[in-house]
Design brief:
Largest sheet: none
Order of helices and strands: HHHHHH
Shape: globular
Strand content: under 5%
Number of strands: 0
CATH topology: Ferritin
Number of helices: 6
Amino acid sequence: MKPAILSGGAALIALLASSSCSTGETPPARPAAAAIRPPPAAPAIVAMPSSLYFRQATAIDLFQLRAADIALQRGSGSARSFALESRRQHQAISAQMAFAGRYLDMLPSRDLPAEYQQMLATLLSTGDFNTVYLAQQRRIGERALKLHSDYSKTGDSPTLRPVAKFAVSAIASELRLLGL
């Protein structure tokens, strides 16, 4: 009988230990399982495919070169000065892109996307050339800076990433001239 007494006594001790009747308080609630989970991981940065980057970057350079040519004909003062610098910078970026593109078996297109064609048409027809040209340059410069900056950090081509880094430096220099 001793074993029955011990097992009954052990059960009584366990019951008393787990009850809170000695203090009259209820035990603190355990945190919900969701509260102790680690925070969600940051979304993975997806590398831009080199072909997409190359196509977008070379379109921007082609636009910048054509816009600068128009500005050298129609612009004056700061617009003309900016066009000279922009032309120099985008010839350098374009040369780097073409060299890397040949290595990767990619060729820049000589056709501009419709948006850029429309912007050039606006430059050819506007009566306030300097204002329109410089506003376009701010907008396209910010777009180009983001494109090249993102690719220089996460691009999938070790051949194009240094070109993107070079472009970031050149475009940042242009944007400083525009007061950005």
